[in-house]
């Protein structure tokens, strides 16, 4: 019986907590505990992925005759089945389970494996796909999306260009819009070379008085700017912004079977929908991206930090239409984001089905993920005025009064960042005070925190509470920083946090756990208690002997620091 309770962990913490558990029985107990407790879908998926990992690592083929099903957990049976290749052996196992423990979960695994093996033995078995619209397949059901049939079942459509939604706040173009334009420019330049074509970067500006940004977005990489101005669009609203963007995206469709609501010819484009589309992963950008992609009947990869375009070979029969056959898909946007585990990345693909195409391939981008490009004032571009009528019903909500919120703290651009995580839990206020003291020894430094501090139930005294709010959060859903020196105290190193600080020139980590994930990407790792280490570093800086403080860390020398004073970090680089 395991003492591990998954309910004690947030999703981002659960991955690192179970990564070293290699007992399948214990993992199965943890999975059942999650089912009985909070029953969180991401947590269940994470634990199951950890269980499945053993099937990838187990190269020894299983002997079906020697498998003692009664003594094996469901996860152990699932792992063993992956190396059973004979249908007759699998059918024998199914009979034995039915005559013995008769567990539904085990029988489902065996039947699934039988179907998989049979499918792999059949060459070019065409999958029958019912491509009728939902209204025809299920006439007895109510279909609230009936009015969206104009965007459904598009097959053989024409797609071009990468669209970038350029968000403005308080009348100014936000930095992430510029970052996306620069990345889009790089992607499409490479794309055009690889595929010998001339597809463009299309910037979208929606709002009040946004025309003033046209020259800027062209300078940052846009070939075309589609602009919609209206005094009613001064502040972001879901309905009008979604309708306007979608009308822009599909207005020029010419596909013969593609009915466009209020369709019109647009001489600057000759395609049904954009091939790719990028949104900022801001509060408004996240809302708009989901609404637009749903309306355009496509998918969305949210909170991405990496993008590239290449071919991808897929064997999934749902995508290929033929069991046992592989198919190469061209021009696939690979959208990289941290996964639920907190210590791995996932790459999301938006792949067409045999009778249905999913475009635009869409992603929202974490601010700070890409370099801010240098504007080129000599660039020229086409400006398109969007003038389709706006429905008054879209503006049912009006803002009568508002308060201008404090913009918060901008952690980017500082030479030094001192960040603290859950390791300050023994004395939260003192932990923040020590971080402030250390940051105060540098001319240009600030204090940041992890999401665990922002969302945790720590009690802080009033004089430090301002340093624990969301505006100082570093990571996937916070700010992305790249200082000359990043001090991470009491931070485990989940990927969500790594995204926000991995580009720092030098990373110094302080942690009592020698196996903390952050050690893998730190230049210096100090094994010690931050409540002892941070004051020593502060004192050393005051006295001008920082190197001595790094060597005196409360218990162990920094990782890779030789006796002669030179330091070689975990990545094999000398500092």
UniProtKB/TrEMBL annotation:
MF terms (GO), sorted A to Z: electron transfer activity; flavin adenine dinucleotide binding
Entry keyword annotation includes Ubl conjugation: no
Keyword set, alphabetical order: Electron transport, FAD, Flavoprotein, Transport
GO BP term, pick one: fatty acid beta-oxidation using acyl-CoA dehydrogenase
SMART domains: ETF (SM00893)
CDD domains associated with the record: ETF_alpha
Basic and acidic residues composition bias: residue spans: 130-145
Keyword Transport: yes
Ranges where the record places region Disordered: 53-80, 117-148, 549-575
Positions of the Electron transfer flavoprotein alpha/beta-subunit N-terminal domain: 162-399
The protein's name in its UniProt record: Electron transfer flavoprotein subunit alpha
Gene source species: Haloferax gibbonsii (strain ATCC 33959 / DSM 4427 / JCM 8863 / NBRC 102184 / NCIMB 2188 / Ma 2.38)
Source species taxonomy: Archaea, Methanobacteriati, Methanobacteriota, Stenosarchaea group, Halobacteria
């Amino acid at each position: 019986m395991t003492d591990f309770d998954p309910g004690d962990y947030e999703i981002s913490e659960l991955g690192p907590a179970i990564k070293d558990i290699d007992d399948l029985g214990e993992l199965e107990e943890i999975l059942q505990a999650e089912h009985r407790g909070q029953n969180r879908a991401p947590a269940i998926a994470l634990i199951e992925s950890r269980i499945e990992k053993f099937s990838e690592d187990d190269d020894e083929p299983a002997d079906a005759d020697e498998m003692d099903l009664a003594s094996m957990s469901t996860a152990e049976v699932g792992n063993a089945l992956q190396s059973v290749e004979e249908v007759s052996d699998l059918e024998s196992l199914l009979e034995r389970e039915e005559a013995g423990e008769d567990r539904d979960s085990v029988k489902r695994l065996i039947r699934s494996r039988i179907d998989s093996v049979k499918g792999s033995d059949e060459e070019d078995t065409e999958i029958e796909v019912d491509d009728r619209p939902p209204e025809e397949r299920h006439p007895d059901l109510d279909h609230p999306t009936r009015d969206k049939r104009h965007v459904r079942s598009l097959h053989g459509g024409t797609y071009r260009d990468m669209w970038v939604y350029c968000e403005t706040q308080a009348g100014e173009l936000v930095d992430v819009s510029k970052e996306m334009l620069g990345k889009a420019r790089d992607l499409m330049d490479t794309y055009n070379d690889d595929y010998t074509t001339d597809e463009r970067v299309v910037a979208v500006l929606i709002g009040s008085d946004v025309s003033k940004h046209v020259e800027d977005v062209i300078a940052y990489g846009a070939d075309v700017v589609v602009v919609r101005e209206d005094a009613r669009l001064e502040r972001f609203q879901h309905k009008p912004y979604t309708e306007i963007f979608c009308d822009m995206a599909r207005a020029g469709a010419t596909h013969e079977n593609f009915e466009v609501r209020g369709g019109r010819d647009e001489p600057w484009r000759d395609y049904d929908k954009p091939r790719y589309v990028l949104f900022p992963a801001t509060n408004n950008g996240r809302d708009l991206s989901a609404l637009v992609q749903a309306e355009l009947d496509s998918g969305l990869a949210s909170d991405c930090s990496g993008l590239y375009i290449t071919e991808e070979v897929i064997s999934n029969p749902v995508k290929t239409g033929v069991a046992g056959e592989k198919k190469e898909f061209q021009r696939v946007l690979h959208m990289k984001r941290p996964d639920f585990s907190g210590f791995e990345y996932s790459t999301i693909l938006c792949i067409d089905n045999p009778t249905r195409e999913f475009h635009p391939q869409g992603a929202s981008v974490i601010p700070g993920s890409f370099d801010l490009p240098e504007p080129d004032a000599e660039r020229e571009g086409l400006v398109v005025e969007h003038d389709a009528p706006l429905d008054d019903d879209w503006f049912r909500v009006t803002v009568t009064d508002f308060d201008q919120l404090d913009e918060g703290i901008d952690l980017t651009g500082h030479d030094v960042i001192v960040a603290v995580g859950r390791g300050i839990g023994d004395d939260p206020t003192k932990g923040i005070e020590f971080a402030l003291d250390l940051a105060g020894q540098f001319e240009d430094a600030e204090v940041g925190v992890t999401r665990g501090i922002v969302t945790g139930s720590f009690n802080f005294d009033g004089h430090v509470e301002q340093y624990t709010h969301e505006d100082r959060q570093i990571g996937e859903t916070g700010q992305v920083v790249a200082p000359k020196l990043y001090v991470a105290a009491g931070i485990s190193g989940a990927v969500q946090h790594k995204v926000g600080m991995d580009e720092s020139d030098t990373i110094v980590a302080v942690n009592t756990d020698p196996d903390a994930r952050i050690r893998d990407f730190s230049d210096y790792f100090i094994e010690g208690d931050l409540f002892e280490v941070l004051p020593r570093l502060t004192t050393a800086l005051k006295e001008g002997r920082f190197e001595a403080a790094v060597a005196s860390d409360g218990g162990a020398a920094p990782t890779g620091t030789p006796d002669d004073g030179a330091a070689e970090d975990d990545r094999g680089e000398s500092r």
